[in-house]
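Lay summary. Proteins are chains of building blocks that fold into shapes, and those shapes determine what they do. In this project we predict the shape from the chain. Here is one chain we studied, written as its sequence of building blocks.
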Amino acid sequence: MGIVIKKLYETVEECRVCHSANIQEVLNLGKQPPANSLYSLDDDHPEDVPLRLVYCQKCSTVQLGEDVNPGYLFRNYLWITGTSIVAEQYSYKFVKKALSELIDSNIKKPYVIEIASNDGTFLKRFIESGCKVLGVDPAKNIAELAVENGIPTRNDFFTIELAKNLLKENGKSDIIFARNVIPHVKEIHSVISGMSTLLKENGVGIIEFHNAGLVLEEMHYDYIYHEHLFYYTLKTIGGLINRHGLYIYDVMKSPISGGSWVVYFSKEKKEKSEKLIDLEQYELDNKINSYNRWQSFSEKVMQHSSKLREMVINEDKKILAYGASARSSTLLNFCRITSEHISSVIDKNPLKKGLITAGSNIPIISFEDGLKEIKDAEKILLLAWNFQDEIIKDLRDSGFKGKFIIPLPGNPYIL
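And here is the predicted shape, written in a compact code that computers can read:
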């Protein structure tokens, strides 16, 4: 990958949020290569890293037991937001809600900053709404793509130090947001502090994150991989930003990652919305933040993986799969489903074509090449199940008449 990594990972001894040493393992998914370590035939196989969930007995934050070097994970990134129809459509709703949260509706050109802005799909919507924007993203290849698409983007990791520099250059923002990145960040306090530094006193802060309650309730253990250090609930994300003098006042549901929360926060305490109050109570009633609940989840994961593996390896011949996503890596590796069982994985992302999945060693082919394969295929393992409707329609329209193995949510089944 062109990056010299002195040490790929290290084990943490204390909670990354509250620094308590009272952290306990709740799920061990074994040693796996980092999920986006896709490789070509000429490359060495990626190194395995322990993949463990630990629970903080003090602040209830669920997180990984190991840190993988961020330079390895994010300097050359393979996910492009704009490749997802769901994300593209959702971006309009996200931007409309964000702009409606501005107290001062007379701002002629709101200044909007996005952390981990990827290809600028969401910032493009803000530009279309008359805003001044700035994206910050550490992946050089993706940042260059955003700039080519007309989205001003700073190629860097977002930190408190960078925030201070941006403050001098452009001043404070009316809206600052981070979509599906806060769970990825090792130096989490630096990022939240940076957001606070760049937010106007009456500005709107927004964080979108995968709903850890769904991980528990719908068995989203495939969401657990080395990029995702944290598994936040409304309680634990609120506890994190409260430490920086910020306060959540509203929440919206997002379709991303199979189900996410978008929380809205401010520097001044506002009255919480009824929806937020109800959802916080739901977490309490259903013990979403309890150690015992996460232990029970661990037992169900073991049972689920056995069922899925049996369903796939009992086929008479190799089958196709769809979606070489990061989350598919966890599923394949933990269930020990490999190139012995899957002939190839179809994926629309052009950056992944011709590469091989990490650990499971399955060739990745383009959608166009996949169309040649599906004519004779009887079953397809739908790894990107969180885009189920979109993908099934695509494949049915393209002539696939076989069945789908749907691994999640809940127990695996044939469709």
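What the prediction tells us: The longest helix spans residues 291-313.
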